[in-house]
Design a protein that fits this description.
With 345 residues, the chain is mainly α. It has a single domain (51-344), classed as ABC transporter involved in vitamin B12 uptake, BtuC. The protein has helices at residues 22-28, 33-46, 53-78, 86-103, 108-126, 128-132, 135-155, 157-160, 181-204, 207-217, 219-224, 229-255, 265-278, 284-303, 308-322, 326-344, and strands spanning 166-167, 257-258. The protein has a two-stranded antiparallel ribbon with strand order 1-2. The radius of gyration is 24 Å and the shape is globular. Its main location: membrane. It is found in: Cell membrane. Pfam families: BPD_transp_2. One of its GO terms (cellular component) is plasma membrane.
Length: 345
């Protein structure tokens, strides 16, 4: 049986009908993430010229906490490990920078990589418990690190300044910038924050990030697939400590003073609470958590001066009830709900 020649026509193929909700998908989908980030950066650069110095200082501290929470997010949100001693690594970076500035008169910008490297090495060593411990046992070990750090810093008074701490000079803005001191510190913190987020983004998109996710999701399956659990668990602690050390260094620049009581165990607990409220495993979580850590304790103090801790705890409960996956997850749910409603219309 033979077949005739295939008929060829010059008629153009009909254009594909636009997918239903196609424009809406582009508006509410991932395609708008980069423009949203660009708009956020423009607003961030514009803010210090419109706000009073105190508000600029508050935003600067939000950026500092965001960098610290970015490291904690790598460890808890992406590697599935737990840490109640993250404030200790922040203290390592802060005191490392402070000692370099006070004792050796090192330039401010040089202290940043040095403090981050110091915290990375200590995190690599203190990550040894993560190889054998998990869950509550690992949390207890990291909590112990945060507890003994404060008396340890007070003991070596000749180096750390003891209970009195160390007073330091803040980075002075170059004359050519025309910026005030608070604005210059803000832009330094912003530059460190953007660099940290880009570094974390690249890390999570690499082989290391895939390994961390495999460890988080199922350690047994990850080991069967060839993931070296001890290596990547320690590496997660080291990266987390590095970001905390960088945040501690910028904290020293902004405050111009460090003392052991600034890094008490409550700081570690507050950082973990801020990350959970912001959203574990999301890039927006550390930034939202930084806002929470910076502003909610002050709001709690204003609501009830006698028992701010009670108000702080109640606010956490309310946020967790409304947004079980954090504020970042709540924003995603609202976007999906809006998308469904508009589709029905």
């Amino acid at each position: 049986m033979t077949t005739g020649p295939t008929e060829v026509t010059d008629k153009p193929a009909p254009a594909a009908a636009p997918a239903r909700g196609g424009i809406l998908a582009r508006v509410t989908g991932a395609g708008w993430r980069r423009p949203a980030v660009a708009v956020l950066l423009v607003l961030a650069c514009y803010a210090p010229f419109q706000l009073v110095p105190f508000r600029v200082f508050q935003l600067t501290m939000v950026l500092v906490y965001a960098v610290a929470l970015l490291g904690l997010n790598l460890l808890v949100g992406h590697a599935g490990q737990i840490s109640l001693g993250h404030g200790a690594f922040m203290a390592v970076g802060a005191y490392g920078a402070a000692i370099m500035l006070d004792r050796w008169d090192v330039p401010h910008l040089v202290t940043l990589p040095a403090a981050a490297a110091l915290a990375f090495v200590l995190g690599l060593g203190l990550g040894l418990p993560a190889v054998r411990l998990r869950g509550l046992y690992l949390a207890l070990v990291t909590l112990a690190i945060a507890i003994f750090l404060v008396p340890l810093l007070k003991r070596f008074e000749s180096v750390t300044g003891g209970s009195m701490g160390l007073t330091l000079a803040k980075p002075a803005p170059p004359a050519w910038t025309g910026l005030a001191e608070d604005q210059w510190l803000y832009f330094l913190a912003l530059a460190v924050t953007v660099t940290a987020f880009l570094l974390a983004h690249g890390l999570l998109r690499s082989r290391v990030g895939r390994a961390l996710h495999a460890v988080r999701d199922n350690e047994t399956a990850a080991e069967v697939m060839g993931v070296r659990l001890p290596f990547y668990k320690r590496l997660a602690f080291a990266w987390s400590a590095m970001f905390a050390g960088a945040a501690g260094c910028v904290y020293t620049w902004v405050i111009g003073f460090v003392s052991p009581d600034s890094f008490a165990v409550t700081l570690s607990i507050t950082l973990l609470a801020g990350l959970v409220v912001g959203g574990l495993g999301s890039f927006a979580g550390p930034l939202l958590g930084g806002l929470f850590v910076m502003f909610v304790p002050g709001i709690s103090q204003d609501i009830n001066d006698a028992a701010p801790g009670v108000i702080f705890g109640l606010l956490i409960i309310v946020v967790m009830y409304v947004a079980p996956t954090g504020l970042a997850g709540l924003a995603g749910r609202l976007a999906r709900s809006t998308k469904r409603i508009l589709r029905k219309e």
